[in-house]
Amino acid sequence: MRLGVDVGGTFTDLLLHDEKGRRTFQAKTPSTPEDQSIGVVEGVKLICEKAGISPADIDLILHGTTVATNAVLEGKGSRVGLLVTEGFEYTLHLAKAWTPGPLFGWINMDKPDPLASLADTRGIPERMNARGEVVRELDMAAATALIDDLCSSGIEALTISLMHSYANAAHERQLRDIVAQRFPDIPVSLSSEILPEFREYDRAITTVMNDYVRPIMKRYLSRIEDRLADNGVTARLHIVRSDGGLMSAAAASERPVHTVLSGPAGGVTSTMMLSRRSGFPKLLAFDMGGTSTDVAVIIDGEATISRSTEVGMFPAKVPTLDVRSVGAGGGSIADVSELTGSLRVGPRSAGARPGPVSYGRGGTEPAVSDANVVLGYLPPVLLGGEMKLDVEGARKAVANVGQQIGLSPEDAAKGIIDIANEVMLGALRVITVQRGLDPREFGLVAFGGAGPLHGNAMAELLGCYPVLVPPNPGVLCALGFLEADFRNEFVQTYIRSTVGLDPAEVWSRFAELEAKAQTWLTEQEVEEADASITYSLDLRYEQQGFEVAVPVSAADVRSKGALTQTLADFHDIHERLYGVRFTVPVELVAMRVVARGATEPVEESFAEAASTDVKAAIIETRPGYFNGAWQDTVHYDRNKLGVGSRVEGPAIIRQYDTTTVLLPAHYAEIDAHGNILIWPVSKGN
């Protein structure tokens, strides 16, 4: 019994998979922003009740959390102390001299305060050079005095980030030992362990961010484990990493910076699985929830792994799935700008409490979900009848906005949805058109609570078909957690020209990284049969500012073969990515080892009762607003649509965790995997 738990801004989604019975159970419960663990435990109770099992029957809980992300975005992290090499106290303030906007961006930029203040920063007398050689010995007496002063000032965590510690971490370890002896209760992070790579600002800010959220994450995971235990749950808890992998709760407590994009990773992982199973090699992941929308590109069943991301205004150099997010979701609030008198949607969100007006929890401002209710796209009841919507309240709220700009309630609602679609379309354009990809060559996987509501409209705007709505779209991120592998990355910076470089010097350094990877797999209790290790080299043309990861074979690593094939692969990859190759020397930057532990795929047996007779699946006929007029629109029960069923638009397909809108001049078919495939009639048979 594996349970995936995805905490969103509006709902907490849960998906329970019974491997023996090949069945899945799903549940949605309102999120509790004041303490996410409350909503999680309520969801666990609900899903156990639905599945008819005891909480003790659950074997494994896989949890995606936004605790780390929210702490950074809201500026509510811990007070962090920072030890740097003397003379580099302003590293976080200088950053990268980057400003948003082309002209006078620095004038308009509201630069955030660093995550560790200058008052909590101390310069330590010491210095290493880039080759790891000691230029200035560590002054132990001065360091001890500075540590006493800083750690006695009330800091909650301490970061140690010294110059060139990626090449030689001896001084950082010595400082950690001093802190451990004198202030054992203060958690300490070393940049040489969190990010053993060159580029001082990236290394410092990533390690500081780890400490900024570390005490908060530790408290949260402790609370959630205690609450689960109090309710009879004995399962192990694992946390989803930003790169879609898994880590133990203990590891997440120590390195929470690896969870800053934990939530969206599950949906991308599921989309990769859908690509491989459904036979569509090119897909766009479109995850629309209550607060935000996340999009990603899948090519040949794989998503791009980025080596860095941004959390608000701060970079975090950790492996992440390449996901773009925009502040548009079902809970995005619509209002009229006092300055321009125009309609605008988001990024303000109604959240979980009070939520959209139609939820009947005290919300007064209309949201995107309310607009869907007004147009007849959302039925009066959700979650299989568990949640009744305030249709009249939603109409009044939308009408109030429409009145301000001279529109009927229907046209105001349509305007709200159109604006939200354009915001989301912008994110899809960024990951396709701006990267030289033609969206018309891709299908669109619509998921999240609101994704299937808008998926057909997004595909119509972009020209990407089919729209693929999986069997459990509202809880697809939670499903992705169940299918995620254990994953961790180990890296060593080693900057050398490859001209005249002895290959044995390169390959021999993989041994230490491989040993770390094997140790980590053992700590995560990964079975030997499920464990695998891959290798890569970061290479660049000399004088380039950024590098390219080039996979290398285990055979080359173990045989200490020549670099000829690796260099040829680098030229090919560089040309594929950037359209050009050069004849200048190639430089080695770093070696990477990725450890993986495979998990069992989620296999579900479909009910044989569903037939291809779509009439048997009709729930009711209700008015829906399409093409500027009200039309009789048939509502179908998705659970009664068997493989091969075909539904003509306009139509509404309802299920427990979401609602799918099928536009006019489109049709939907159920494929062999239980997915809804939406096509324009012009492409049909």
Assembly state: single chain
Calculate the terminal CA-CA distance, rounded to whole Å: 42 Å
> What number of domains?
5
CATH domain fold name of the largest domain: Nucleotidyltransferase, domain 5
Average pLDDT taken over every residue: 89
The residue ranges in which pLDDT falls below 50 over 5 or more consecutive positions are: none
Beta fraction of the residues?
A: 25-35%
Number of helices: 19
Radius of gyration: 26 Å
Structure description:
Residues 203-489 form the Hydantoinase A/oxoprolinase domain. Residues 507-673 form the Acetophenone carboxylase-like C-terminal domain. Residues 2-180 form the Hydantoinase/oxoprolinase N-terminal domain. By secondary structure, the chain is of the alpha+beta class. The chain has five domains: 2-72 and 217-259, Nucleotidyltransferase, domain 5, CATH 3.30.420.40; 76-214, Dna Topoisomerase Vi A Subunit, Chain: A, domain 2 (3-Layer(aba) Sandwich), CATH 3.40.1360; 281-465, 2-Layer Sandwich (Nucleotidyltransferase, domain 5); 486-597, Dna Ligase, domain 1 (2-Layer Sandwich), CATH 3.30.1490; 614-683, no CATH class. It is 32% helix and 28% strand. It has 19 helices and 37 strands. The strands form ten sheets. Strands 13, 14, 15, 20, 25, 26, 33, 36 and 37 form a nine-stranded mixed sheet that branches. Strands 3-2-1-4-11-12 form a six-stranded mixed sheet, with helices on both faces. Strand 34 (651-654) and strand 35 (659-662) form a beta hairpin. Helix 13 crosses helix 14. The radius of gyration is 26 Å and the shape is globular.
